Amino acid sequence: MPKKKQKLELTWIGKDEQPQLEPRILIEDPSKSYGDSNAENMLIHGDNLLALKALEQEFTGKVQCIYVDPPFNTGQAFQHYEDGVAHSLWLTLMESRIEFLFRLLSPTGTLWVHLDDNEVHYMKVLMDQTLGRSRFISSIVWRAADSSNNDAKQFSLDHNTILVYAKSSDWESFLLPRQDKDNLHYSNPDDDPRGPWFQGNLSSPNPRENLRFDVSSPQGYVIHPPSNGWRWSRERMNSMISTGEIAFSSDGTRVMKKTYLANQKGLSPSSLWSDIEDTGHNRQAKYELKKLFPDTPTAELFKTPKPERLIYKILQIATKEGDIVLDSFLGSGTTAAVAHKLGRRWIGAELGNAYSEACIPRLRKVCDGTDQGGVSKLIEWVGGGGFKCYELAPSLLKSDTHGNWVISDEYNADMLAAAMAKHEAFNYSPDAEIYWKQGKSSDKDFIFTTTSFVQVAFLDRLHEEMQEDEHLLICCKKFSAPCARRYSNIEIRKIPKMLLGKCEFGRDDYSLNIVNVPTEEDAPAFVPQGPPAAPTAKPKPKRKKGGRPGLSQPDLFGEGTAE
Ligand SMILES: C[S@@+](CC[C@H](N)C(=O)[O-])C[C@H]1O[C@@H](n2cnc3c(N)ncnc32)[C@H](O)[C@@H]1O
Q1: Does ligand 1 come within 6 angstroms of the Cβ of 511?
Q2: pLDDT computed for residue 557 by the predictor
């Protein structure tokens, strides 16, 4: 018997059970859209799996950077399941989303998944399996807590991990701008006209006999090579001496490699993000929200935001102006806010109340320029732009009292035409003059949806209008039998029969209801550097029974918090 081919794999209850998702249309809610009406930024309300499916047709291969910060599965999310099932459900939930997200990425795009120790290692294996191990770029350790928890019985868990995957394994990051602190080791003790420099390494990293040769200084000293040999060949050394890149000490006894600040490019990003001035921390993120919504009681503010500086760094590394950024676990809207301020085009999806209570008011303030917190001052944000708000359309079919699938009465003619175009992979773009050209899949292939009874006379008229090489798909509720094969370039099908079995109708939520994970309520207030604020005495954070110590993204704002 042939040996079963074995492979390294992670399995769990429900693995590979992928739902057959209905491709919903998105319906703009103009009463919520805001600012510049030409803006293409999209804020979507609803379950992100359906939202991603809705975006699939238009955005596959177009998104440059996806950042997601899903619920961490801290053990409180699936209260009604035992632990093993809870992990399985979480993984199943993420598996399908990761696949969809990856499809949307452009060939040079990256996917960033923010988690903590609860699931990150499982997620790494899942992503390796689903996306391919070669696409793994790095796991970034982000310092999430600005101070450690001394009540922790084991470790104070102070970091989160961000897994970075790229569509292509030879993805290259944008370089980060140098800051003054990055240049401290440059100086100009000899008033070199080329400016500050530092002494670079002259020694070969590995022993190389052919690079072991003596060098003579202008003062006549013979300088012996380092034990591994020089870094460069004799010819290259001579040329560097002639350009001044390699210089001799004033007494001629030493040779120096001058690395000039002026020649330095930006910095490659490090995988360790521990400088809270640079990438913020959880309490700062809450402080940012408190400043944005000073009248909202602290207990009602969104519980698990991320700081704008964190997203700022990610977008600097992974995107340029005009690129599309997507976050399908948008929460309080941090990714959208930072992408907006940086001139990126953004798409966000959020299922919970945060959509109307945090995302919309926050992004309005961003457009108005009245949000001067987060990275606004750093990048001199003054406002501008706009966004459109969308709801997922209801399911196209519903089951009637006899258990038969019928077209939902929430659909008007336009919605039905748009939905049918989406189901049949046509681009919905009604022609201004030719009514039956409602959508197309190529220059010659069109779709037309009607709720009327289609008969031969109507079909004949349509055929007369069509060019010989054009093809038309008609979707209708009913047609007379002779229409079926009357013209080879007109295909006619019935709704809803043509749709049945293709996907799951009538289901609006694939989220398993993990929305906001409860967090601890009391911990010291974060007071940023800058204008002084009266310190508020706070009791020490209590450790929750059975909860993990340290990093539970506590709710840190008591009444009387700074500013
Ligand atoms: C940790 S929060 C994200 C916080 C966000 N990064 C921020 O800075 O505010 C996770 C968010 O995912 C949302 N969420 C969970 N399941 C979802 C789903 N199936 N579809 C859309 N949003 C979902 C939750 O409502 C929650 O707001």
Answers
A1: yes
A2: 24
Give the DSSP letter of residue 297. -
- Outline where 67-162 has alpha helix (H): 83-104, 120-131
- State the DSSP code for 522: -
Domains within the chain, CATH numbers bracketed: 28-177+268-392 (3.40.50.150), 180-263 (no CATH), 397-499 (3.40.1350)
Ligand 1 closest atom vs CA 509: 19
CA separation for the pair 319, 297 (Å, rounded): 36
Contact 71 CB / ligand 1 (< 6 Å): yes
- 281 contacts 554 by C-beta, under 8 angstroms: no
What phi and psi, each to the nearest 5 degrees, are found at residue 134?
-70, -15
Q: Is the CB of 352 under 6 A from ligand 1?
A: yes
pLDDT category, 526, cuts 50, 70, 90?
low
Task: Give whole-number Cα distances, 553 to 167, 353, 522, in Å.
Answer: 31, 19, 11
The CA distances from residue 215 to 224, 230, 231, 259, 472, in Å, are: 7, 10, 13, 20, 80
Q: Which of 503, 556, 533 is nearest to 149 (CA)?
A: 556
Ligand 1: distance of its center to the CA of 69 in Å? Answer: 7
Q: What is the pLDDT of residue 537?
A: 38
Residue of the nearest CA to atom 2 in ligand 1?
331
Please work out whether the CB of residue 334 comes within 6 Å of at least one atom of ligand 1. Answer: yes
* pLDDT mean over 272-301: 95
> Is the torsion defined by CA of 481, 485, 486, 492 positive or negative?
positive
Q: What separation in Å is there between the alpha carbon of 49 and the centre of ligand 1?
A: 12
For ligand 1, the distance from its centroid to the CA atom of residue 488, given in whole angstroms, is 49
Residue type, 97: R
Distance 330 CA to ligand 1 centre (A): 5
CB atoms within 10 A of CB 371: 24
68-82, 178-192, 385-399, 436-450: lowest mean pLDDT where?
A: 68-82
Tokens of 397: 């079919």
Mean pLDDT of 138-153: 96
Q: Could you please report the per-residue DSSP string of 124-144?
A: HHHHHHHH-GGGEEEEEEEE-
Q: Which two tokens stand for residue 351?
A: 């299922």
> For helices 282-292 and 308-318, what crossing angle results, to 10°?
110
| Contacting residues for 22 by C-beta, under 8 A, at least 6 apart | 50, 53, 395, 396, 503, 504, 505, 507
